[in-house]
Amino acid sequence: MRDFSQLAIDTGLALIPFIFTLVCSVFALVLSHKLLFRDKSLNASAKFPRQLSLALVYFVAIIALIISLPVEKETKNQVLGLLGILLSGVIAFSSTALVSNIMSGLVMRITKPFRTGDFIRVGDFFGRVTERSIFDTEIQTEQRELIAFTNSYLLTQPLQVVRSSGTIISANLSLGYDLHHSKIEKLLVSAAENAGLKEPFMQIIELGDFSISYRISGLLEEVKSLISARSRLLAQVLDTLHNANIEIVSPGFINQRRMDDKPPVIAKPPYVHKIDNANEANPEDLIFDKAEAAEKQEFVEQTLSEQIKYLQTQVKQADQVHKERFQKQLEIKLLKLEKLKQDKKTQ
């Protein structure tokens, strides 16, 4: 009987480190859940790094429990070795591309080379960003096609991003040596101004055997109209030069018709007008419909999240009279954010 009692006491004493570690692990996990996910307004992108942090806490807790087990040292080493084999198996059987995409996604979330709604060019593809995830990035092209790039591909390729503050729009053309460049510069600058571009400038980019190559450029402040702005610039270059009686044809142009000293080959418009940029329909509204909707949705979601954080602070600091009012506003904002997320899932 005495031996049995002594054995029970020894077993109890041996279990104390394990029980203490178990209690501490449970406390740490509960505290981590509350600290990492106390903000219910977090979107999927914001939750991912917190989920990784929580997974790390779980892993550390499991290691601590194994080390505190009341068993022989060799048994602990065997359990730890088994855990290592399981982790190695998971990594070995996981796709290398999958791991690479996850790491690339993390890098891009840290560096933030672009955001939803931005124009980007990757290789031969150009479009607006519609979705960003930890595995891939989706863009919508000028043909309304949706193309998904893996994050590892984006990280290893030259990436061009159109700045949201404005971008340079350009048009190239060739004219003969019989036209002085100062006259051409005035006309091309005027065309760029009529197209709605700011601070236009002309460049002579090449002196060819038969013609001079010009480039007219200007700043487009509203980048969402990038596609239509390029078309406007080309149309204005045509109208401005033709109205000045300047041909835009190859120096080797040959027309088989008998001209009889007729005027130059210039298409005469029925009337001359300056394009009204304000009333002009933008094809971008149709081309980049998903990208535009995604950008607006992300903006609304970020705005709601900021308002929710502010209201949560006010609820904690306000007195009882104002606390109820802030609490009602907070509940309304949370419902709006939840509905927004549900709508996003069903799209």
UniProtKB/TrEMBL annotation:
Tell me the ranges covered by the Mechanosensitive ion channel MscS domain, including all copies.
98-158
Regarding the membrane, this protein is recorded as: Multi-pass membrane protein
Where do transmembrane segments lie in this chain?
12-31, 52-71, 83-107
Kindly report the protein's main subcellular placement as a broad class.
membrane
User: Assembly and interactions?
Assistant: Homoheptamer.
Which PANTHER family has this protein been placed in? SLL0590 PROTEIN, SMALL-CONDUCTANCE MECHANOSENSITIVE CHANNEL
Q: What is this protein called?
A: Small-conductance mechanosensitive channel
Naturally occurring in which organism (per UniProt): Agaribacter flavus
